[in-house]
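Batch manifest line 189
LIGAND: pyroglutamic acid
JOB: complex structure
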Amino acid sequence: MSVLLTGFDPFGGASVNPSWEAVSLVPDTVAGHTVHRLQLPTVFGRAADLLRSEIARLQPDIVISCGVANGRTAVTPELVAINYRYASIPDNAGQHYTGQRIDDAAPAALMTRLPVHRMIDAVKAAGIPASLSLSAGAYVCNDVYWALLAGEAELGHKGLFIHVPGTEAVDSAQAARAIALCLETALHE
Ligand code: PCA
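JOB STATUS: finished
ARTIFACT:
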């Protein structure tokens, strides 16, 4: 099996994005499976398009996309992606969405098929704070998560989005360990 991990570039005036720092520190092989990595731009639509092309090229079995959620204090696997774009700040291309559906013909939300509760148990057992999130927001992370789940039937992977907190709450090495543990849990399903 192969897996793809993604993180984002910095946004909102920050100089680093802890999600990419963490994804960079995950080992190249997890449980014997090759880990591929892709950095996505914090841009509505473009990030989702890049992700879809890379999944089509690599044909990974599992795809875990990661982003930072500043202010959170735990690693949070996201249960659902919503069919909506709404944000208080523009993206890195200056696009500012103030409330519209991503796909008028699609349902309101999609749910991951990966075992989020077992993942959270595994991360907590390693001494790293983790909890379930029921909303990935409606900014670029959710936009990517929507594309990831909406593309499952056509592209053949199983997807999950994980928000990592700022490094003051969980440092990059711990966040990388948490991502690797979630991946191991998904691979052992
Ligand atoms: N976090 C943002 C987008 C990029 C990132 O790392 C979000 O939560 O939507």
